[in-house]
Design goal:
The protein is an alpha+beta fold and 590 residues long. Helix content is 56%, strand content 7%. It contains 26 helices and nine strands. The strands form three sheets. Strands 6-9-8-7 form a four-stranded antiparallel beta sheet. Helix 20 crosses helix 23. The termini are far apart.
């Protein structure tokens, strides 16, 4: 099969270089050098994909433009460390990788290209590596939009109930199917072995037919069923802990879960290992999880314990070596990464990921400026392209909004993620319980997400909100924020959030713009103290205030009928007066 691509070589535009550097023959020289180097690069080693060739040529064109503006040839640019350093700083990470490969081609063919100066390939390659942005500076993993995030978590939790109901049946079938072969007499012929299995597994077949098995391999059907259950549990653990997929794959079976009593409340700690940023060496690590993560781990323990029980006399190893998410053929072996990624795309995404809509794209655009989502596979009308790392980043961002999580639906989904857990993952995590996390722990990503989550909250409910939904926006905090951002672009506004000069989090009445800790006493869900004293950080949505007033009026009328003059009646009546006074104050301000 043949494929074609068009290559566009360097062509200087008028006035793209100052007259003092202009050399009439320079354009032709640079253009011919680009063609020569590209041809040699294409001709080196195995046949290159057209996409690789196009990327290499685009890199050369970019460097050719820099060479022309400096009044030097393309080869002179490649051989001068200072010029190459400055030009490499303008390359993205993909172009930088291509530039290093092209430099190697230049060095190998230096005699053929008649380069008279010394080409110090290793030094120049290091210059490119150090000067160009690394892949870490590329676009981050997309945040899962709030509606899609809620749906994914909801469907995963729904599957948790189903797994708890059916796991005994599937595990029993797994044990019987494996034992029927492992415990069969050694002297049986293949035909008698099949007959032996048929007798042993007659009941298992009846049960599996109810789960969809027909005439295919019974072992493959049971293994596929149980592997999918195991995979869903792994996704739940990742979603409700923030760990990486590589860390989930090596969670141990023994001692993986620990209960910690703090302040009269039980919290759940996952004990495992990480080798990220540790030179590839395995290092103990801990994560705090919710009740849902705890349930998922208990179910995963039952699966891995069943595998261990079946194979402990056949495969050498100890219980200490067994893994929580092991393969179904070996309790000491982790699942292969390609298998997990294939399972994610083929099995899980179709079952838990909703279709992307335009409001989802609008929400992403409000957060990530000047980014094409098509390159991430995100487009309207297609299922959300879930990846493992999206769980991690979305948890870190959403958990900052309104305390732990701000969107009401997310509060419902993550209600068991407690305030003490927030203390673990934010700056004060080490004070909540005596657990010390290292400098690479998820808490630091959690902290880095604060600016993004604050800007997202502010953008969605203040800058881009529906007036019919929110109503007029009032409050001294809103006035002060508007003065700051009215003359700034969204990019500049996001920078203010990142620099700690602006902050925003949602409240019952609207929002709060306090940069530090709130100095009003948060004794109740509704910030009566802020309403009464006209807090300078308050943002109030007219519709929310109106709905709250209607609810409060109904409550006062009910109390007046049933218990007039009581302490509760007087207190709620005072609260109603506060709200009515606040509405009058906001109307005058408008």
């Amino acid at each position: 099969m043949h494929s074609s691509c068009k290559l566009y070589f360097f062509d200087a535009q008028p006035f793209s270089v100052s007259p003092e550097f202009s050399r009439p023959e320079l354009v032709a020289i640079i253009r011919e050098q680009q063609k020569a180097l590209l041809w040699l690069h294409i001709d080196t080693g195995p046949q290159k994909a057209s996409k690789t060739t196009v990327a290499s040529n685009s890199t050369l064109t970019k460097l050719a433009q820099g060479a022309y503006q400096r009044g030097v040839t393309l080869f002179e640019l490649f051989c001068d460390p200072e010029i190459l350093c400055e030009e490499s700083a303008e390359l993205n990470s993909n172009y930088a990788q291509c530039a290093r490969a092209l430099l190697k081609t230049l060095w190998r063919n230096r005699d053929f290209l008649k380069i008279l100066v010394e080409v110090r390939q290793k030094k120049l390659s290091e210059v490119i590596r150090l000067s160009a942005p690394s892949k870490k500076t590329k676009n981050q993993t997309p945040i899962i939009p709030s509606r899609i995030y809620c749906t994914i978590l909801s469907r995963l939790l729904g599957s948790l109930d189903e797994i708890e109901r059916d796991l005994d049946t599937v595990l029993d079938a797994y044990r019987q199917e494996r034992v029927a072969t492992l415990h069969a007499p050694d002297n049986l012929s293949p035909k008698k072995l099949c007959l032996h299995r048929d007798i042993q597994l007659e009941k298992v077949r009846k049960v599996m037919r109810k789960r969809g098995w027909e005439h295919a391999s019974l072992r493959a059907f049971i293994a596929g069923d149980l592997s999918l259950i195991q995979f869903k549990l792994m996704n739940l653990v990742i979603a409700f802990s923030g760990m990486r997929i590589g860390e989930a794959r090596i969670l141990p079976l023994k001692g993986v879960l620990e209960e910690v009593d703090h302040g009269g409340t039980v919290h759940y700690v996952i004990n495992g290992y990480t080798h990220k940023l540790n030179g590839g060496r395995k290092k103990p690590a801990n994560w705090v999880t919710s009740r849902e993560g705890y349930r998922a781990i208990l179910l995963a323990e039952r699966i891995s314990s069943a595998v261990l029980d079946v194979f402990k006399d056949y495969i050498p190893g100890t219980e200490d070596d067994a893994l929580l998410f092991c393969t179904l053929d070996n309790p000491y072996k982790k699942a292969e990464a390609p298998t997990l990624y294939n399972r994610l795309s083929a099995k899980l995404i179709p079952s838990i990921c909703p279709i992307v809509t335009q409001p989802d794209i609008d929400e992403l655009n409000a957060m990530e400026l000047e980014r094409s989502w098509l390159s991430d596979g995100i487009k309207v009308g297609s299922p959300w392209p879930l990846t493992f790392h999206q769980y991690r980043r979305s948890l870190s961002v959403y958990a900052h909004r309104s305390g732990m999580v701000s969107l009401p639906a997310l509060k419902g989904q993550l209600q068991h993620i407690t305030d003490e857990m927030r203390a673990y993952y934010s700056d004060g995590f080490c004070r909540a319980v005596n657990l010390v996390f290292d400098k690479n722990h998820f808490s630091h990503e959690w902290g880095a997400a604060k600016a993004e989550s604050s800007f997202l909250a502010y953008s969605m409910v203040v800058l881009f909100s529906d007036d019919d939904l929110v109503g007029p926006v009032s409050g001294r905090g809103a006035e002060r924020m508007e003065k700051v951002v009215c003359s700034r672009s969204r990019r500049d506004t996001l920078k203010l959030f990142r620099d700690g000069k602006l902050a925003y989090k949602e409240t019952v009445l609207g929002g709060c713009t306090a940069l530090g800790a709130c100095d009003h006493t948060p004794l109740e869900p509704i910030p009566w103290d802020c309403v009464e004293k006209d807090c300078s950080n308050a943002v109030v949505f007219g519709n929310r205030l109106g709905m709250l007033i209607k609810t409060q009026e109904a409550l006062v009328v009910t109390l007046a009928k049933e218990d007039q003059g009581s302490v509760e009646h007087r207190l709620e009546a005072d609260h109603l007066r506060m709200l009515l006074t606040a509405r009058q104050r906001f109307v005058r301000a408008e």
